[in-house]
């Protein structure tokens, strides 16, 4: 639900998802959101999210195209 809301929320500047389980489907959704450059999101925290190596790579690929995140 949180990630779906991010598709329409253009004012959020930081997102802390620490200790939330992010499964493969949600990792792909997060990557889709992160690859969009029309957000104000500057910070994302993902520690202890039980990301698989594949999910981590999916998110990392999206971060390469994101121009708004600074940390």
Compact overview of the structure:
Helix content is 42%, strand content 8%.
Structural account:
Helix 2 links the parallel strand 1 and strand 2. The protein is globular, with a radius of gyration of 11 Å. Helices cover 42% and strands 8% of the residues. It contains 3 helices and 2 strands; from the N terminus they run H-E-H-E-H. The protein has helices spanning 2-6, 24-35, 53-65; strands at 14-16, 43-45. 17% of the residues are buried.
Outline: globular
Overall pLDDT level: 86
What order do the SSEs take from the amino end to the carboxyl end, as H and E?
HEHEH
Helix % is 40-55%
Using DSSP, what is the number of strands? 2
- Trace the largest sheet across and list its strands: 1-2
Biggest pleated-sheet summary: 2 strands, parallel
**Helix segment tally:** 3
Low-pLDDT stretches: none
Strand content: 5-15%
The quaternary organization reads as single chain
The N- to C-terminal Cα distance equals: 23 Å
Which structural class fits the helix and strand makeup?
mainly alpha
- Whole-number radius of gyration? 11 Å
């Amino acid at each position: 639900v949180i990630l779906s809301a991010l598709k329409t929320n253009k004012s959020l500047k930081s997102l802390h998802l620490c200790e939330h389980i992010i499964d493969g489907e949600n990792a792909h959704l997060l990557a889709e959101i992160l690859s969009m450059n029309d957000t104000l999101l500057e910070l994302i925290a993902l520690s202890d999210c039980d990301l698989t190596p594949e999910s981590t790579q999916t998110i990392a690929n999206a971060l390469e195209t994101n121009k708004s995140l600074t940390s």
